[in-house]
């Protein structure tokens, strides 16, 4: 069917065969009415049924459409040849035309050959007559006979010549060269020397049968099976000019948006390419002219041929205005082309007054509504979004794995009476570009993500979008603005607030339906959350918690104490109380300033006294109010609530104390509590117990061989005993792996300080749990992803940890920080927000790395917010013109193997289902599923029980991938015993084999094994609970 014209196809299947109810006379059809009444009714009925069913009488050859452009092809070879032009796109994946499975371009050939060989069977009639041997004139009818016959001549030392084409004039004396010739030049010619019906898969296997006899036959390229093997139409152009121009524009777009090259550097590259094409044309024209003149062709014809030929060079044309008026030679023209052909959203400048230096305050904001429209045009995002709506309406299950299982989401759904709603999470954080320099250019960034998507999609950095950038020092109000009661932060982000209000009221269109878009959560570190939430910015105040009104005195007396969460009414009342205190203090300062000014005026000259009038009030207030009094005025609060409410409280249906500001475990635990506690533990072991010294500890850390994902963020050595160096994930891995590193150095496993360390490690495992089964039916009170027993246990061990820091304050000096109090709230916050790991800021802060690289590479610190906003939109346009999602399954097809059940032991065969078809599977040693890498030899937690000290794990023996993209693991079940020293010891008693699908795994995270005193051990990334 593929590779032939529609008319020829229909002719071959008999559509144009003469109607038997017609007779021909003098080559003109004459309708015979005999029997027409008997044939008309069934024919009409059949046509009506086909039309109702939507089936075309003769659909013709299949059409394969490129998902990146509108080009269509009628054969696999054309489809693959054209797809190659897009393969440098980000997250480039080719859908299989037979099963729509997304895969890398290099994997397409292997996939079709392995799983769709029968699907490629197609009838094909070749009007080639019998072929005669050029040596002995023997007539041959099949390719096999032709190959065998000519190879017999070669073995006899007789020279042969291929006669399959007029272009084959080369004589052959070597069998190997003849096989290469047949494989490369006549791969599509199989057993059809006489008119017959064969299939493409048979043709390929026939040619491969000979080419595989020698190792390098067919060694011509990675897409050999697609190299014109299916009779591609001569008029098919896989690379049209418009597509090539788009790819050149996309090349420049990626240079600026993805690779952070400065605009001046990209312009230099464009000019250099322009010069290179000119030089290349010059040399090619000279060579072509000399060659044509040697054939004595007329000079006018030569000039015309050369001119028309080189006018067809698309790379030359897009860099020269004389050849293409819409060329890409300058940054201005490239930007115009990007705005027209790519989803580019232009950043807007927002002016909001003068700062303390008298300079203009300008924020660069990006429309949330416009970027959201572009995102919702993506079919994958739309599909995931619509799927999330159906999941919301589904019956509650025993698995709690998302924020949708928390009380905050249920409360939010009640506002919409159960109707559809798109939730977005807004993240804010201030970041600097130079870790050692002054924070003069420190910028406050606002990002947002679609919270309605599944957790795997929310965590992808490419789906985190920019809302705006503001220079942080511009958010500090002047003295006059403070006295006038102006909220500078609210003025700076007013366009964002207006858009969020509009999106909630008017919504956005998704699949023809208008759905409201609501702000669901504000995400950030503790300082940022307090800044935008209207709380105190200092954590050394008497009241420091945004969740409850506990005082510092009460916290130090009982560190494990927590009070009831602050309600919205209590928050608003606290704002009013703080405002009354602030207003009273402000009036007192103004009155005192006026008295001081009048005293100075009476002592000064009349000109000075005149300045005390109303027009000079601004200067008067700035100079007379003491700085100490002004700072006290700005610090006024009531139970940690400031005198100005959060700007986001003006959005209908949202209130920051509902609560809508979750904690960040990365800042609180990994870069807060852990940085305080772990150095104290090591100092105790080194200085007091003298179990080891600092060089020994660092040597253990440096020489420890981390495996898997642990190697990407391996623990950092201690530079000094007073400080833990490393970022959040490195500190997390230090906590996880340190018990294995120093297991043989701990002389007393019951040491109280060591128990505090293990207590903290256990807390982290529970807090970082992404999904846990909830099977305690008696505990219906809690509706989160962690069972009641786990929530109660987490609350218990956090209280134990907080009280230990107080009772052993000599061992842990200065460790009783406010983040310890936040930790005591975690068990209750899980009930509200679901798994706290799902609202962590780490994925958002990964975006900071891009903007830091932008400023460093541009080497321009003038108007940094504009530079970052423009680069972020170029990056947005680049990503949204490609695939936002990488393939769910990534593997190397060259390392896949077929299954040979004959080599399987009996215990492995017993784990396979009865209908197991080995031809539909391939065996792999490594595979990446949804960003998680699995390898043979790794351990997967299968189930656990809080009433048992053991954990059942499965050692990955084989990874199986079927033709539909389903990943299965053949695992060997084992028991892992809890050592109660921070790790589990693998029991060498092997149980049985199981075949598990990836979606059936209780826990998705594979664990590498390490050796401790000669035994294999694993350390958990997060807690596992399957039974209670």
TrEMBL record:
Gene3D superfamilies: Classic Zinc Finger. Residues 133-153 form the C2H2-type domain. InterPro entries: Znf_C2H2_type (IPR013087). SMART domains: ZnF_C2H2 (SM00355). PROSITE patterns: ZINC_FINGER_C2H2_1 (PS00028). Residues 204-224 are annotated as: Disordered. It comes from the Eukaryota. PANTHER family: IP13529P, NOTOCHORD-RELATED PROTEIN. This is Zinc finger and BTB domain-containing protein 17. It comes from Frankliniella fusca. The lineage of its organism: Eukaryota, Metazoa, Ecdysozoa, Arthropoda, Hexapoda.
